[in-house]
Amino acid sequence: MRIVFMALIVLGSATGYGQCVNCNSLDEALKKPENVKSLKINAYQNEITLDSLTASIGKLINVEIIYLTDHNITSIPKEIGDLKKLKELSFSGCHLTEIPDEIFLLKNLKELILLDNEFTEEYIQKFKTQFSKELPGAKLMISAAEY
To answer: How do strand 88-90 and strand 22-23 relate by DSSP bridges?
Structure first.
């Protein structure tokens, strides 16, 4: 029994026991960012509101899913383009007025959800055109009128 317990302790420390892989806290995710596969933080559910994102988001190099919804985020750092494994991304319900062009570097992206932001109609049309050209296999949800 003691050997099994010791093996679990060693295994736990070798795999980053206590570190989130499917995180719901940005602070926790950034402790060992290379281990993070998903980051989901809804301001209403977590009672934590993010006011901004920093370049540190680019450290989540193995992340596949990011849902940061209903936050006070007004801009996305260009380092978002470093997340080459990203498949799903949502910034719904934030206060974005534009998206950095680095988003088009995410060639594995399958779904981008940008509903309920502060984009102008002109910006939405321009972004949709570029999105369909740059990421033709991905789904874009940016205007509630479409759904």
So the answer is: unpaired
In a domain, 14, yes or no: no
Contact 64/88 with Cβ under 8 angstroms?
Answer: yes
- The per-residue pLDDT for range 53-107, each reduced to its tens digit, is 999 999 999 999 999 999 999 999 999 999 999 999 999 999 999 999 999 999 9
Name the one residue in this structure whose structure tokens are 């736990």: 12
- The CATH number of residue 85's host domain is 3.80.10.10
What total number of domains does the chain contain? 1
Which pLDDT band, with edges at 50, 70 and 90, does 19 fall under? low
Residue 97: name the closest of 71, 133, 79, 123 by CA. Answer: 123
Give me the domain span that covers residue 37.
Answer: 20-146
DSSP string, 31-74: TSGGG-SEEEEEHHHHS-------GGGGG-TT--EEEEES----
CB 141 within 8 A of CB 118: no
Residues in CB range of 8: below 8 A, 6 or more apart = none
